[in-house]
Amino acid sequence: MPLGTLDRTPPPFFKQGLSAVSKLLLFSALAVLLMVADVRFQVTEPLRAALGVVLYPAQWLAQRPQVLARASTELLQSRDAAQTAERQATEQLLRQAQRAGQVEQLLLENQQLRELLGLRERLGGRATAAQVLYEAADPFTRKVIIDKGANDGVQESAAVMDAHGILGQVTRVLPLLSEVTLVTDREQATPILNTRTGLRGIAYGDASAESWLELRFMAANADVAVGDLLTTSGVDGVYPPGVPVARVTRVERRADSVFARVVCEPLARVQGTRHVMVLAPLSDQIPPRPVIDKPRPLANPRGARK
Amino acid sequence: MIMPRGQQLLLPASPLFVFGSLAVALLVSMAVGIGWSGRAAWMPDLLSIVLVFWCVHQPRKVGIGVAFVLGLIVDVHETSLLGQHALVYTVLGYLAVMIHRRLLWFSVPSQALQVWPLFLAAHLLTLAVRALLGGAFPGWSLFLAPVLEAVLWPVFSVVLLAPQRRAPDPDADRPL
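Predict the joint structure of the above. Result:
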C-alpha cells in the first residue's frame, strides 16, 4: 500500500479548540447580534458594502450562464419575429411622434398658464438608466438588484421605473449595486392618485398573492372602479408626480368592513424587466419646511393671580 | 480505524477540493438563483447540502465557523437580513457535526433519510426568523425544499467522494 493512501495525521488529543456547543452558541449569538444591528440600528452597512465589493467578481461570474443563454436565444430568434417587432416599433414611433408634437404645444401652453398663475415649475428630477442584474433569491420578499450603485450617484429612496410604470424604490445602496424593493413587496407602500377621481391613497404590496397590489384604507363608499389608472401623487416628495403605477382589477365592498378591498395590478413588469430608470428623489428640490414659532400659551389667569 | 464492514478505504480528502466544491456550490446556487427559480420556495439550497456533506465527512476541515462565514456571504448576495443565513448555516453545521459519527455507519439512502430533519429544521428556522420580522409566508411548497435536499444527498455523496475513491496507485490499467 503506497504511503498517501490513508489520512495519517492523527486527530489532536488536547488542542481541540472550542466544543461544538460553545461554537454554536458563539456564532448564533454573533448572527443574532448582526440581525439586530441590521434591523434596529442600521450599523452593518459598511460590513455589507465591503463584503459586496469582494463578492462582486463571483456574482459577475455567476451571471455568465444566464447572459450567454440570453445572447444565444436572441441570436436564434427568427427573422420574422425581428421584422414584426420592427414594424410595430415603427408604428409606435409614428404614433408617438404625433403625440410628441402635441406635447410640445401643451408644454408651452402649460408653461404660460403656470407662469400666469405664479406656480412653481413642475418638479423634474435627474434620472439614471440601469439594468436589472438579478432578482434576490429570497421567497419572502420581492427585490431586484440593479447594476448602478453609490459610485453612479444612486441615492437611497429613489424611485425606479421601467417603460410601463413605477417598478419600486431603492432601499439599499452598495458601492457597485443597489437593491430595489418592488412595489409588490409586502413592506413597500406607494403613494398613488386615482387619475379618474383625483382621490389619493396608498398602495401596499401583497407578495402572498402573485404580484398584486392592494389599496388599503379606502372607505367602502369611495369612488374606485375596476379599470381606474393609478399614478404617483407626488405629494410625498420622493416620487415624481404622474408616473403610472397600477390599474384597479377588483373592488370588493363587504358589509362587515368599513373599508373596501381594492386589488390592483402593477403596470410595470415586476416579473422580468431588464432596463430600468432610477429617478433621483425630489426631496432635495423641495423647499425646507417653514419655521413656525411655537404657539405661546395665552396669559394664564391663575398664574396672574399669584 | 473503526468503520463499517465492506466499506471502501478512502483516500485523504484534499483541502483544495473541499473548499473548491464549497465555492463552486456557492457560484452554482448564485447562478440558479438569478431567474424565477431563485424566488421559488421549493428550490433546494445546494450550498447547504455541500456544507452538511463536508461537516459530516470532514468535520476537522469544515465546521461551524466555515458555515457562519458562508452564511454571511449568502446574506450579502441575497441582500436579505444580515445574519439570517449565517444563523441558519451555523445551526445546520452544528447539527451536522453532532451526527457525523453516527451517520457514516448507515448506507447512503438511509443517510438521506437522516439528514432530512436537519434541512427541515434549517428551513423552519428561516421561516421563524422571517415571521418574527413580518415577512410574507412563501407558500406550502417551502416544505418541498428539505425533501428535495434529502433526495439530492445520494447524488452529492457520489460526486463529492469520487476523488477520494480513486486508485491509490494509478497505473496504465487504472489511470484515475
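Chain B touches chain A through 58 residues (CB under 8 Å).
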